[in-house]
Amino acid sequence: MARSLPRPFPGLPAAALCCTLLLPLLTACHGTQSSESLLADAQQYRQKGEARAAIIQLKNLLQKEPDNAAARLLLGSIYIDTGEALSAEKELRKAKSLGLSAQQVMPLLGKSWLMLGQFDKVLAEVPDDAAQPPVVLALRGDALLALGRRDEARAVFARLLEAHPDQVEALLGLARLAALEQQVPAAQLLLAQALKSAPANLDAMRLQGDLLRLQGKNGPARLAYMQILKIKPDNTQAHIDLANLDITENRYAEAGAQLATARKTAPNSLGLLQAQALLDFRQGKNKAALQALQLVLKAAPDHMPSILLAGAVQLALGSPQLAEAYLQRFLAVYPQHLYAVKMMTSIELMRGKTDAAIALLQPMLAAFPEDVELLSLAGEAHLRARQYDKATAYFEKASTLAPDTARLHAALGISRLGQGENSRAINELERASMLDRSTPQAGTMLVMTLLRNKQNDKALAAVKTMEQQQKGTNPLLLNLKGGVYLALRDLPAARASFEQALGMDPVYLPALNNLAQIDLAEKKPEQARERFERALAKAPKNADLCAALAKLAASQGKTDEARRWLERAHRDNPDAVGPALLLSNFYLKTGAPDKALELARTLQTGHPGDADALALRAQVEYSAGQAQAALDSYNKLAGIQNSSAPLQMRIASLYLALGDHHNALQAVKRAQALDPGLLEARVIEVAMLLNLNRQREALAVARQVQEQQPKLAAGYKLEGDVLMEQKLPQQAVKLYQHAFGISPIGPLQVQLYRALQAAGQARDADAGMAAWLKAHPEDLSTRTYLAGTMLAAKQYRDAIGHFQYIVAKDTSNVVALNDLAWAYQQEKDPRAQATAEQALKLAPDNPSVLDTLGWIVLEQGDVKRATALLRQAAVLAPASPEVLYHLGAALAKSGDKGGARKQLEQLLAANKDFPQRAAAQALLTQL
User: Fold this and answer.
1) What is the CATH number of domain 845-926?
2) Hey, how many other C-beta atoms are within 10 angstroms of the C-beta on 868?
3) Which InterPro entries has this protein been placed in (predicted)?
4) Are 530 and 491 spatial neighbours (Cβ–Cβ below 8 Å)?
């Protein structure tokens, strides 16, 4: 029986197999053709629009004659047509090396450089020389235009037109320039002139489509691009332009088909790769988009459209730092590009750099005053800057232009809340909620606002409306409704709502937490624990549930149980930073810093490039008191998060803790460079410069703050601080008064009081302070400062009155109790010891409290107890001259003259100035 032949390609259609078998026969034919015949075939194929066939014939020719310059030139020209710029450049360079003139090669070679984004190379190879052929000199103008050097480009094109009035490339260059400057009518006139001179010029026809797209006339633009394909069916760029047009209209299938057609002709076209990346990006396929862009940028590192798109893709992938690097490169060339500025603004807002975001937006708002997205970004930036009036104005304008956009009305509601216009805010949130019923964000904000305004019944009505709109399928809404019932003090209804939410999602943590709070309020902690454990049984590795159980156990004093839950969360999620952070913090709080350090270091070692793991290690080292190790870790973290101003501030604080003022100051300056609006950095810089006795620099910084933020009090307060350091209190008074006029707050009242006292204006100081405390009786911090100054001035009766007021308001205020006890003792008030005893109960290891009580009981004759208390204070505060003097006096009274003498001699030998120095010397002479 005959055996059937094996099928070499299972599943391959017969026709395809025939074609596969015929290929060697067809490709073998060239061996009998002459070079002239192959070149002629290639030219004919090109004229018929069959680029791939032409390329095959030319490659066959070049196999026979590698040094055929004409073939190289033609092949390079075809590659230009198909958009394969790298291959074009290679062939054209070879053609030039084979002896073809620059006049023959440069128009094409320069165009390949433009396609590759190698604009500087064009400028280097094409000098600004009128003797250059016009088509070559026009390439220089195109390169200047691509680099954003518009005036220079304009000059090149203008000179060309002066010498050659109908030179098409110059007309097209000026038309592109006009389009970039939003002068579309001028661009159209120039284009019409170019088309009159060269009606079949493909670049002119393409620009016609581009101008139509710029005006939003997508239908006519499509016809323009299709006209190119009628003339030249294999024109890759026309297919790419049609695909880009489809992408803007969300016609992704049609765009994919256009790109597939282009791929048959030019599989290595950089424009094709970039368009495919754009299509992937628009469809949410960001990783695929990034891979395509990396191929483009590897071949053409300065390809600006791909650089811009790479920034957008990295932003979508959650990598704002990488996105920023791409966008900065793009904006250096196109500083007014709307889309790029919007993305850069979003990045600045993500980092909390509102001033930088506003600075980016200002010129764009002038150029594009009715761009809704730009207005929305401006509203968001000013909202975050707490400039609610400006935020409201931007959101109002945006919502007028796009009245049916729920997001804008929600944002407008938030900005009105910031202005205190609660009723108008509620109106906007209600409108946002009605416009967007599919998502609950606006409705949730509305309910929360109503609850904040104590409009609980309206809040309940709003949440019920939302529930009807979404047919009760969202546990978030049920949890929100439960919160409203809690506000209404309807615990049964609240519990029912939370339980309904759990019926939809048994591990919905917000509802579980709310039910736990009700259980604890009803003294039923076991019921809360059982509910969490039932949820955990459904999701055994849920770290959040373990953390909730740990929190519940800790609230009941069950430390070991809390530790076991946190250890389980970490064990079940060993690579997650969150559980590790909770457990390490627990170890620190419960006296196990070694375990915390081991945990954090193990996690970071296993994830050496993970910023979160490194941040955890640094934080734990800092909390464990290992300042140098924490500094090393934070510096490594700064190498990864190199745009974080708060991180630099943490580094500065660690340098300060280590006594390295120079590096601390450098870290503060880095923070300022990253965030020029970071006021905290300026404040600390001034303080550090004053500590380093660099008063002139400190004054310059203070005045710089005034220039940058003249409506804030900080700059004037800082200058006042510098003047006080320079012993110029009278001048400082004026600065503090100005700052206080801008921001009347307690700390500024204190600074003004100090300056007035130092300037000899005690009456004005006392009057101002008295008026402040009368108007702000709850400002205990300012009252504490005043009482302390009175104590230091030995105005004991006045100090006692203030300390009594403070203690009545805050019974656990140790500092006030201790100072009150001391003042009582100076006034021989019998309440002194009882008050000091009360302070000791609150702070048994506080050396100041031990010293006060020790001195009081010593003066009352209890020498033994006084000596014991003062010894304990001296151990805790061995550098305090006052404590050491008191201990010396106690030893002398106890009869230990040798011990007293030694104590006092050591104290006086330290040569420190302190209020009791004369008394210590007098006592020493008596021993």
Assistant:
1) 1.25.40.10
2) 15
3) PEP-CTERM_TPR_PrsT, TPR-like_helical_dom_sf, TPR_rpt
4) no
